[in-house]
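For practice. Supply one:
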Amino acid sequence: MTTPHLTAGFSRFLGADPERLHVAAHSHHPWPDVTLAAQLDAWHDAATMMDRKWIHVFDDVLPETRRWIAHRLGLPDPADVVIAPNTHELVMRILSCLDAPVRILTTAGEFISFERQVRRLAEDGLVQVRRIAVTPAATLTTRLADAAAAGDYDLLFFSHVLFESGVVVDLPTVVDAVPDRRPFVVIDGYHGFMAVPTDLSTVADRVFYLAGGYKYAMAGEGACFAHCPPGYGPRPRDTGWFADFSALGASADARITYADAGQRFMGATFDPTALYRFNAVQRWLDAEGVVVDAIHDHVRRLQDRFLAALADARPTTLGTRAPVVVPSGRRRHGHLLAFDVPHAAEVTAALARRNVVADHRGSRVRIGFGVYHEDRDLDRLLDRL
């Protein structure tokens, strides 16, 4: 296993502002240099192939993306992976498979996009939502599994890694608690994919898994995906023409048909450039011999060193003793450290004035490290804090 020393591979993003200290890998991750050539490749293919570029995208580019995703997640069949410009599209297609009112079991710590959507649907009586409290963090997996065991819901939706805290939910424990195969089980893996080692091989026939390239996969926006278990949602109501190319010549009064595997959840025309970037990043990591376990170990070491430095008595912007929400000593902690800090917005604004890019959610300041960080970056961060 190779420990990442990949900082040089981000020379264009980091070199654009050498004094900027970006510690928000959990938000907008820098893109590796290899993505620039990939971006140009997409443009060149569009220019030289024109209309025929879509043959190349569906025959070569997209299958490679699917293979990389299946490889990273231990999925048995790359064909069960569907892509979309964002995960929200995929959530809506999954919801469209279910009859209202949809009974949803979820947590109180889901990402804003999902929470906003289900709250709006609840206003019209289209969904009924039960939320499991995310604190105390140590018992979240158990409490969610106990609620899942009741089985009185149509959709179980939860994050692998919570975006506000970095808390990791144990996937098999929760999935195995579901008493039968009727409910849809959907995992939001956006803060876990390419960060926390994830093997879905034992649950791939049972769960949807959503993630994308904007964060730890380092591919930027537009490269999102879902693993779609066979047999679940064969005919989404929310559907686009890419969901079945074979039906293009069908009569207007014919029954709507769907492709097999993950393509049944496809939408319509999209910009494939992000897939070029995604594939380029995956090839680069593979050539460097870097696996997700090594990335995770690298980030945990940085987290531990950072917290140890904060634990001395020197006052910092985060307080004399940083009130980290979940200590990183837990092997399964995600790649963001969350700190409960009074006036969190003012803290991130003060950091911004020192050219430190962090962010906050509510009263929590979030600091996230990645493969583009080295020990010297921690020293610079501590100095500015």
User: Anything to note?
Assistant: Residues 292 and 339 are 25 Å apart (CA to CA). The chain has a mean pLDDT of 93. The chain has two domains: 7-30+291-384, 36-285. The radius of gyration is 21 Å.
